[in-house]
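A reminder from the course coordinator: this example appears on the midterm review sheet, so study it carefully.

Given structure:
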């Protein structure tokens, strides 16, 4: 998840800590989902765990709504599309490429994954968008990263065209297109299951993240409401329409009641009305959440499999894998992610300053020649 770790511990900040905490909750939701429900489905526990947590889809849903809010807020505040997209790449790619390298090692050494490492699949995964090229994600959780990257491109288009300043009409058109297209694609797949057009429709659906676009729209419109841009009742109507479209084209049977509860929490968090979420451990989990999101699943599952082979009870393996995932994510955040990000941002700033200086010199020379 991208934006899954944009937070940093701050002494005094204008950050809305509740939103950081919501990001942490979204990440912990995924971790519990993968270490119980998904592990049971893929590998099976040696004995009965006693429970599973099959609600991972709601963590993703919450995160996409949060991403719409936070990224629109950031971009509208800074209004520097070039810097925004470079900052996203700097933030996302180094740790992502590290997890790809780690998975190459896991796949080549552990029989539990039954994966063959292929060059084309690896290259496709390095792009963050393997699904568009017909490949599976080496790290399964990173399918959401493809959606995030495409969402960033969508935001860039809105900003470049001036539509991000008044997004209501644009987003209503966008979700209407998603509604019509997805319903058409679903009908066509049933009527003509063997048609080659189904594959093309799937690519179009993924390229424009149609099934998830309404979730991002809800977050963007919530940002408009919070920043007091637009008519409140119209924005609320737009958010309601987005939610209805999402559930109409949803293929994962999300519960509408859960959507209401999660969006209600997001609204309250955006206005700073959930002070108990400012709990320091949650804020710290938000700080390491991008690494936790990337590194918990395959690594944690491998550890659980090893512990089970030693006779460790299932519940103890889940607890151990959770502790290990948090510890390794903290180490990667502090010793790899943060230093790498700091270095690359410094290089980008210096490069930007050089470009600005050269541009200023060219303008001065042009004036001098004209005189």
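Designed residues:
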């Amino acid at each position: 998840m991208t934006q899954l770790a944009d937070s940093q511990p701050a002494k005094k900040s204008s950050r809305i800590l509740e939103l950081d905490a919501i990001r942490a909750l979204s990440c912990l939701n995924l971790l519990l989902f993968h270490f119980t429900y998904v592990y049971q489905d893929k590998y099976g526990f040696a004995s009965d765990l006693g429970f599973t947590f099959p609600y991972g889809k709601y963590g993703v849903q919450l995160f996409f709504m949060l991403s719409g809010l936070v990224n629109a807020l950031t971009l509208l505040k800074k209004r520097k599309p070039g810097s925004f997209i470079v900052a996203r790449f700097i933030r996302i790619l180094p740790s992502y490429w590290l997890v790809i390298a780690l998975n190459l090692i896991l796949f080549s050494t552990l029989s539990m994954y039954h994966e063959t490492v292929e060059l084309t699949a690896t290259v496709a995964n390095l792009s963050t968008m393997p699904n568009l090229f017909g490949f599976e994600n080496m790290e399964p959780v990173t399918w959401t990263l493809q959606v995030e990257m495409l969402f960033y491109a969508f935001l860039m288009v809105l900003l470049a065209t001036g539509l991000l300043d008044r997004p209501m009409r644009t987003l209503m058109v966008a979700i209407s297109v998603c509604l019509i297209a997805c319903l058409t694609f679903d009908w066509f797949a049933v009527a003509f299951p063997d048609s080659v057009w189904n594959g093309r429709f799937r690519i179009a659906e993924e390229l424009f993240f149609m099934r998830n676009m309404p979730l991002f729209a809800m977050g963007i419109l919530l940002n408009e409401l919070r920043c007091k841009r637009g008519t409140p009742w119209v924005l609320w109507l737009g958010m309601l329409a987005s939610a209805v479209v999402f559930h109409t084209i949803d293929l994962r049977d999300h519960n509408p009641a859960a959507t209401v509860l999660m969006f209600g929490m997001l609204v309250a968090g955006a206005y700073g009305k959930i002070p108990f979420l400012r709990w320091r451990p949650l804020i710290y989990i938000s700080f390491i959440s991008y690494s936790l999101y990337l590194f918990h699943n395959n690594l944690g599952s491998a550890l659980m499999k090893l512990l089970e082979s030693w006779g460790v009870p299932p519940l103890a393996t889940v607890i151990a894998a959770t502790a290990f995932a948090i510890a390794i994510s903290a180490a990667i955040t502090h010793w790899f992610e943060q230093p790498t990000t700091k270095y690359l941002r410094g290089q980008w700033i210096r490069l930007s300053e050089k470009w600005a200086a050269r541009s200023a010199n060219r303008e001065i020379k042009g004036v001098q020649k004209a005189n």
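The chain has one domain: 3-370. Residues 3-370 form one domain.
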